[in-house]
Amino acid sequence: MKDSTVSIAVWVAVSLALYYLTKGGKRQIHATADGSFELRMAKLYQIIGLLGGIIAGIGLFLPLIANEYTTSIFVASSFVFMLFAALSTSCFLWYRNHKVKFNAETITAQNVYGKSEDILWKNIALVKFKPFAGKMEITDAFGKKISVHQHLVGFSTFIGELKEKRGVYNFVCESLPPASIA
Known about the structure:
Shape: elongated
CATH topology of the largest domain: PH-domain like
Oligomer: single chain
Strand order of the largest sheet: 1-2-3-4
Strand content: 15-25%
Largest sheet: 4 strands, antiparallel
Distance between the termini: 38 Å
Radius of gyration: 20 Å
Number of helices: 5
Number of domains: 2
Structural class: alpha+beta
Number of strands: 8
């Protein structure tokens, strides 16, 4: 009974998180004073990153908490620490660094490590949505690539602009996100 309760609780938490992230992606955002739009990752990424960091910290001190110093507790402690440290760092970096800013002329995307790239709308050659990665890759005529994550708040606004620009500049869209995401 206890295992099924935990499974149901995890299922409910994951379902609610995905609902919240999808809802944020569908939210329409408004242009800033200079006519540009800025998309940022959902705040849930920061929350998951911080909670994962706390769990990683607990995992690090698990032998002290359990007052047990066997090989198995050190292996379990190391596993919990590495797993949650890696996942929480990833979520926190996505929240802190990834953003997309676009206007009538350009798209500027900052990746998970904070590196920024610009692409002109008129130079886009290929757009490809990768559903398992949860992001869209945009490649220009010179081979420069940027990625746009589907959990950016206002992602649907970006998709709308992308569809509009495709009509003007006639670039190739191998795939776009399904309507349920955008």
